[in-house]
Amino acid sequence: MGGEDERRRFLFVAMPINHFGERVRWTLDLIGAPYEEYTVGGLISAFLRGRSVPQLVDRKSCSMIGNSDECLAYLSAAYAPSIADTRLRAKALSFLRFDEQTMAWDVKLNQLGHLVQGWAYFYVLALDMTPEGCLTAWGAFEPKVPLMHRLILKFGHPFLRKFMRLVFELSNEEVRDRRRKMIESILDEADATLSKQKFLAGDDLSHVDITFSALLAPLLGARLVFAPKSSYANGRFSSFNGAMDRMSDKWPRALLEFEQSLLKRPCAKHCISLYESLRSTQL
C-alpha cells in the first residue's frame, strides 16, 4: 500500500485528557505509524456511541481495537514487523517487546491509570469546584473537538459530573485516601527501580516508560499538560497552552500541592525528561 492510503492507514480516536490514549498516540508517533486522529469530547463516545476511547482502527485489515493494551500489542504484531526502515523496525520491535519485566509493569500501570483517574476526579469534580477545570480537560474549549461535542459538554456538565461522582465514588473520602496510598506505592516502586537502572523495564527504553509517563502526566498539570506551551499529545491541543495560568484558582489546590511533591521524585523527573526528549520525535 502506498501514497495517501499508506499515510492514513490508521485512524486513532481519543479525547483530549485521555492518559491511556496518550500512551497509544505517543507510541504511534515514536514508531512512525501513518495515522490520523479524530478527537471526541470527554465522555461523549461512551454516552453517545457506547464505546470508550481510545480506539485504533487499521484500515488495511479492517480491524478496530478498543483497549490501549491491545492497541500496543496489535502494533507490535501487525505493524512493527512490516516497517520498511530496518533500523526503525528493530527499534520499534524492541520498544514494543512483551517480556516478563514489561508485562509485570503493564499490570501495575493499568492499575495506576485508573487510580490517577479516580483520585484526580475526586477534586476536579468536587461539588464546590467550578466546571472550568474538567471542561478544559474534556475539550469543551478545544477547536479540534466537534462543536456539537463542545456544546454537550458545556450544557450537560451538571449531569456528567453527577454521573461521574456516582460511578467513581467521588463522595467517599476513604476511597480517595486509598487511591492516593496505592498511587504512592506504585510511584515508590518506580523510584526504587529507576535508582538501579535507566529505564523501568531494563537498560533500554520500552513502551513501559512511555506508558508510565503518559499516565502520570495528568498529575503534572502545571508542568506538562497545561503549561504555557503544552507538551502533552505533542502540543496537539491548543486550548491546553497556558490553561493553568488562565484557570488560576479554579484548579484544585490539592492537585497543585501533590504536583509540587511529585516533582521531587525521580520517577516524575524521568517522565518530564521523556516528554522533553522524545515527545516530538521518532525512535
Compact description:
The protein is an alpha+beta fold and 283 residues long.
Structural class: alpha+beta
Number of self-contained structural domains? 2
Helices, by number, come to: 14
Mean pLDDT over the full residue set: 94
Write down the Rg: 18 Å
Give, in spatial order, the strands making up the sheet with the most strands.
Answer: 2-1-3-4
Unreliable residue runs: 1-5
Give a short account of the largest sheet: 4 strands, mixed
Helix-strand sequence: HEHEHEEHHHHHHHHHHH
The CA-CA distance between the termini, in Å, is: 23 Å
Residue share in helix: 55-70%
Which strand-content bin applies to the residues? 5-15%
Shape: globular
Strands, count:
4
Structure notes:
This protein has 283 residues and is α+β, with helices and mostly antiparallel strands. The chain folds into 2 domains: 3-95, Glutaredoxin; 100-278. Helices cover 58% and strands 6% of the residues. It has helices spanning 3-7, 19-30, 44-49, 68-79, 86-95, 100-124, 132-138, 147-167, 173-194, 207-216, 221-225, 243-247, 253-262, 266-278; strands at 10-14, 35-39, 55-58, 63-65. The chain has a 4-stranded mixed β-sheet with strand order 2-1-3-4, with helices on one face. The two termini are 23 Å apart. Mean pLDDT is 94; it is low at 1-5.
